[in-house]
């Protein structure tokens, strides 16, 4: 990690502590401790297991994609990738640092940068596609509830969905309308040469062109592997399902055993969509506010509501960053790509 990343990580931890402290301003500490001591730790353990399965299944997806191209890629190295992604998603605005961090982590194992970029983009397409599918289902189930309770938040949810859908459409255009997409990107980029030096503009345009070509080549190669793609889509569906179920099991741990699993899970899907719109790393502030506002109707006790929010945030945000810090100090194994001499 760079010095700047360490500073941002420290800042996000301090901001998280400040947000938790503000949420607890009207709650007696003794009441919070009493609520925590009396939670059902078996159900909370299931929530922890869901987060571990979320990370573990993403590692399985990484291994499936890499092993299709390269032999000898270990599951230990596959586990490093989602962990590193969680860390850098958590310390960069709009989770923008996760993709570059994954690329560097794969290159550290000996995977060629071009192949790694293509694989990560393909994984991103599948992940975004399943987010859109899950969101559409959740929107049908829970949008009326959010609209009744929080009008502004409901439109934020729709706006978030529009952005995710636009990303998917853009990637699908690269896959199926390669030449048209390159021309369209060139047109969109052209005005930028008015504000940039010629050498820098040409370098940027060439880099984007190269990435489009690389992703298109990978999509053509993998389009004939229907079984592999179906396997990845199914794994991604369950990966996201485990993540979306976390608040439900936290509610069971707090004694709300009559919670509707479908509605609670749908609400979490919509919360995740809202979080993606906040520019602050990890959606800090917006995530906590959205959770409290949406789940206030389900959790009557104010102290338990705040405790549920804290446990949810610790699991879905800070735990991921902790695994990323561990992954950063784990030395990766090295793979040798087919056709390369073994002494390289």
Structure description:
This protein is mostly helical. The chain has one domain. It has helices at residues 3-23, 29-37, 41-67, 75-90, 98-108, 113-149, 151-176, 178-189, 198-223, 226-244, 246-253, 261-275, 286-295, 302-329. Helix 6 crosses helix 12 (261-275). 35% of the residues are buried. Mean pLDDT is 86; it is low at 339-344.
SSE inventory with pairings:
Layout lengths: L2 H21 L5 H9 L3 H27 L7 H16 L7 H11 L4 H37 L1 H26 L1 H12 L8 H26 L2 H19 L1 H8 L7 H15 L10 H10 L6 H28 L15
Helix pairs in contact: 3-4, 3-6, 3-10, 3-11, 4-5, 4-14, 5-6, 6-7, 6-9, 6-10, 6-12, 7-8, 7-12, 8-9, 11-14, 12-13, 13-14
- What's the pLDDT, averaged over the residues? 86
Instruction: Count up the helices.
Output: 14
Spell out the helices and strands N to C: HHHHHHHHHHHHHH
Using the CA coordinates, give the radius of gyration: 22 Å
- Overall structural domain count: 1
Share of residues in helices: over 70%
Strand content: under 5%
Largest sheet: none
Low-confidence stretches: 339-344
Distance between the termini: 26 Å
Structural class: mainly alpha
The number of E-state strands comes to 0
């Amino acid at each position: 990690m760079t010095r700047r990343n360490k500073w941002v990580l420290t800042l996000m931890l301090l901001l998280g502590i400040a947000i938790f402290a503000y949420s607890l301003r009207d709650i007696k500490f003794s009441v919070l401790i009493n609520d925590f001591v009396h939670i059902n730790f078996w159900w909370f353990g299931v929530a922890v297991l869901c987060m571990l399965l979320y990370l573990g299944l993403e590692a399985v997806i990484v291994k499936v994609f890499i092993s299709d191209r390269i032999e000898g890629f270990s599951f230990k190295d596959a586990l490093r990738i989602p962990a590193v992604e969680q860390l850098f998603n958590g310390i960069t605005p709009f989770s923008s640092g996760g993709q570059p961090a994954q690329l560097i982590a794969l290159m550290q194992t000996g995977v060629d940068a071009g192949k790694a970029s293509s694989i990560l983009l393909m994984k991103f397409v599948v992940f975004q596609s399943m987010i859109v599918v899950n969101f559409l289902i959740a929107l049908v189930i829970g949008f009326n509830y959010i609209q009744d309770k929080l009008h502004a938040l409901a439109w934020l949810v729709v706006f978030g969905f529009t952005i995710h859908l636009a990303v998917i459409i853009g990637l699908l255009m690269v896959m199926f309308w390669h030449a048209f997409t390159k021309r369209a990107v060139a047109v969109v980029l052209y005005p930028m040469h008015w504000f940039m030096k010629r050498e820098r503009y040409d370098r940027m345009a060439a880099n984007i062109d190269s990435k489009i070509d690389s992703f298109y080549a990978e999509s053509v190669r993998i389009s004939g592997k229907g079984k592999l793609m179906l396997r990845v889509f199914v794994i991604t569906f369950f990966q996201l399902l485990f993540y979306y179920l976390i608040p439900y099991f936290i509610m069971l741990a707090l004694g709300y055993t009559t919670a509707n699993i479908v509605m609670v899970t749908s609400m979490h899907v919509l919360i995740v969509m809202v979080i993606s719109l906040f520019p602050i790393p990890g959606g800090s502030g917006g995530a906590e506010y959205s959770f409290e506002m949406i789940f206030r109707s389900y959790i009557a006790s104010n102290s338990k509501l705040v405790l549920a929010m804290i446990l949810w945030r610790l699991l879905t945000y800070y735990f991921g960053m902790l695994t990323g810090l561990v992954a950063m100090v784990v030395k990766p194994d090295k793979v040798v790509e087919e056709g390369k001499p073994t002494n390289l």
